[in-house]
Amino acid sequence: MLRNRELLRLDLGIFTPHAVLTAMFLIVPDLLRTTLGVAVHDQWVVYLPVLIVSVAAMVPPIIVAEKYRRMKTMFVGAVVTLLISQVMLYFGADNSFTLVCALVVFFSAFNVMEASLPSLISKIAPAEVKGTAMGVYSSLQFLGVFIGGIVGGKAHEHGGSAGVFGLTTALAAT
User: Fold this and answer.
1) For 115-142, how does the pLDDT look when each residue is reduced to its tens digit (9 = 90+)?
2) How far is CA 113 from CA 42, 55, 64, 133, in A?
């Protein structure tokens, strides 16, 4: 199972968005405060609409991908969309419109990946190792959160917001 390149690609496919999520959310709350003027305790006012729009945006691609058996194409599209969101943040996090749009784009891609990757793992993994494949998948998901916090913190320490978004862009491009 650990030699199966498709499974390893999907494992990396869950590691990366969680690393990106954790790294970027070391600074996004402060960006919402400084760019949008939203106090930390009121940031749900931004996050809730972003989440609602991103969930609505993720449903059509998943339905189309399942109906026409284009899950891999949809997954690749989500990876590209995740990368676009990070480029948007790198170049425009100080602009209110760009910041909110980038968050919607990010969460749309993240939600598509989060919803589709377990299905892809279970379809690709041989029957005798499905449980192990899902265990490796889950472990890499949480390892992504852990590593994202560490490298995101180091990137922020050495390069500020631009350092974090440069890191998250590089991660999304892998």
Assistant:
1) 888 888 888 888 888 899 999 999 999 9
2) 28, 12, 15, 17
